[in-house]
């Protein structure tokens, strides 16, 4: 399916624990959204927890792609986006006390793997969440906390789970979607291209699903450091720091590939292997300085680099692998999830300090190149019993 779209806002309702979505939606059974918030499949009405869910039909209708698209419309959930990987999720008023704190009280998951704490090395930490784009996703589950029993200490406020579509063992599927929009006034062209292919390898036993995408969002902030210098910029240029005007600051490009292999050798037993690669390249820092203008999208920032000939940027690269083994029998089920994450981030930013010889001048800018790397291995085993509830062991 190929579509050409202009910028638009599509409104829809978020499903709560007593809501239903139209039949035919993937992840929907008899008109009810099926969730795995308790580590087993239940409908929203049967789930004994405060859960909001967005099914794939709503995701497609509303053109939801990133966290900022769907979390802002979920009741009781707040979201702050400060650029590539630098975001904060607040559920029921519980979030980071400081936007630079790497310890988050709300969890963020892609499938069975946590993607919290994978931000760039800004301000000496890696606060934020890996914002994996919602391409070929079955549903999003927002679990209000505390959720420590199932999701650990990093889910006091709750947890957000993005559940991708599983491979289809019966049918060949494929689709291509292209979208275009334009940001009025200071922004310009935005586009996204995505494709999905599902290939049954062994009928009813093994299938491969591959997803690829590229999303570009143009920046709408202007850097006017040269034409409208602040006192801090004037002081910095006196020390030899270079400044230039730039448009479309904050533009970002996201490129990703995901492959999933599902094998069901016998009834009740399934093995799913998934690998995800995603890279985000952000041009400049997407921040507005009220000291430059209180009514327009402007900032005044210098150049960076050893010779002052570079512009600010933030780049993040995420490689995520997940192996899930699940066995269901008449009275219960057991699930083992093993994950590996390699997250790398590089940023060139302008930090600042106060000139001790002239404290009235304010901060003087200094370019800093800050690399960061996170490697994480995780493994967990869960046992669920329809009669006796759920317990967890490692």
Question: Could you characterize what this model shows?
Answer:
With about 400 residues, this protein is mostly beta strands. The chain contains 4 helices and 22 strands. It has helices at about 55-60, 65-70, 150, 230-240; strands spanning about 30, 30-35, 40-45, 50-55, 75-80, 85-90, 105-110, 115, 135-145, 160-165, 175-180, 190-200, 205-215, 220-225, 245-250, 250-265, 270-285, 300, 315-330, 330-355, 365-385, 390-394. Strands 11-12-13-16-17-19-20-21-22 form a 9-stranded antiparallel beta sheet. The longest helix is centred in the middle third of the chain and has 8 residues, at about 230-240. The protein is elongated, with a radius of gyration of 23 Å. Mean pLDDT is about 75; it is low at about 1-30 and about 385-394.
Major sheet: 9 strands, antiparallel
**Amount of beta strand:** over 45%
Strand order of the largest sheet: 11-12-13-16-17-19-20-21-22
User: Order of SSEs, N→C?
Assistant: EEEEHHEEEEEHEEEEEHEEEEEEEE
Average predicted confidence as pLDDT: 77
Low-confidence stretches: 1-30, 387-394
Count of DSSP strands: 22
Query: How would the global form be characterised?
Result: elongated
| Tally of DSSP helical segments | 4
Radius of gyration based on Cα positions: 23 Å
Q: Helix share of residues?
A: under 10%
**Sheet/helix structural class:** mainly beta
State the separation between the terminal residues, measured CA to CA.
44 Å
């Amino acid at each position: 399916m190929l579509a050409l779209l202009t910028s638009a806002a599509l409104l829809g309702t978020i499903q709560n624990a007593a809501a239903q979505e139209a039949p035919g939606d993937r992840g929907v059974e008899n008109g009810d959204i099926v969730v795995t918030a308790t580590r087993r499949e239940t409908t929203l009405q049967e789930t004994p927890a405060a859960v909001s869910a967005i099914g794939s039909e709503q995701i497609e209708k509303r053109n939801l792609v990133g966290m900022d698209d769907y979390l802002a419309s979920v009741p009781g959930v707040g979201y702050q986006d400060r650029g590539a990987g630098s975001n904060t999720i607040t559920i029921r008023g519980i979030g980071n006390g400081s936007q630079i704190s790497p310890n988050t009280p709300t969890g963020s998951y892609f499938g069975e793997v946590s993607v919290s704490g994978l931000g760039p090395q800004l301000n000496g930490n890696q606060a934020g969440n890996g914002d994996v784009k919602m391409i070929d996703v079955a549903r999003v589950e927002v679990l209000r906390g505390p959720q420590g029993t199932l999701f650990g200490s990093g889910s006091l406020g709750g947890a957000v789970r993005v559940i991708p579509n599983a491979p289809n063992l019966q049918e060949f599927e494929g689709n291509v979607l292209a979208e275009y929009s334009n940001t009025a006034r200071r922004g310009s062209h935005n586009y996204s291209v995505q494709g999905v292919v599902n290939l049954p390898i062994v009928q009813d036993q093994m299938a491969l699903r591959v997803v690829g995408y590229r999303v570009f969002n143009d920046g709408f902030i202007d850097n006017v450091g040269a034409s409208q210098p602040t006192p801090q910029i004037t002081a910095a240029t006196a020390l030899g720091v270079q400044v230039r005007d730039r448009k479309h600051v904050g533009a970002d490009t996201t490129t990703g590939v995901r492959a999933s292999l599902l094998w069901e050798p016998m009834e009740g037993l399934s093995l799913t292997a998934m690998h995800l690669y995603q890279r985000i390249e952000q041009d400049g820092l997407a921040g507005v300085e009220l000291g430059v203008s209180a009514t327009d999208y402007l900032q005044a920032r210098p150049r960076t680099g050893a010779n002052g000939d570079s512009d600010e940027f933030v780049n993040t690269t995420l490689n995520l692998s997940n192996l899930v083994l699940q066995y269901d029998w008449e009275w219960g089920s057991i699930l083992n999830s093993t994950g590996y994450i390699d997250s790398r981030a590089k940023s060139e930013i302008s930090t600042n300090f106060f000139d001790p010889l002239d404290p009235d001048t304010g901060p003087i800018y200094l370019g800093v190149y800050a690399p960061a790397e996170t490697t994480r291995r995780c493994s967990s085993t869960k046992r669920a019993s329809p009669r006796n509830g759920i317990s967890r062991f490692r």
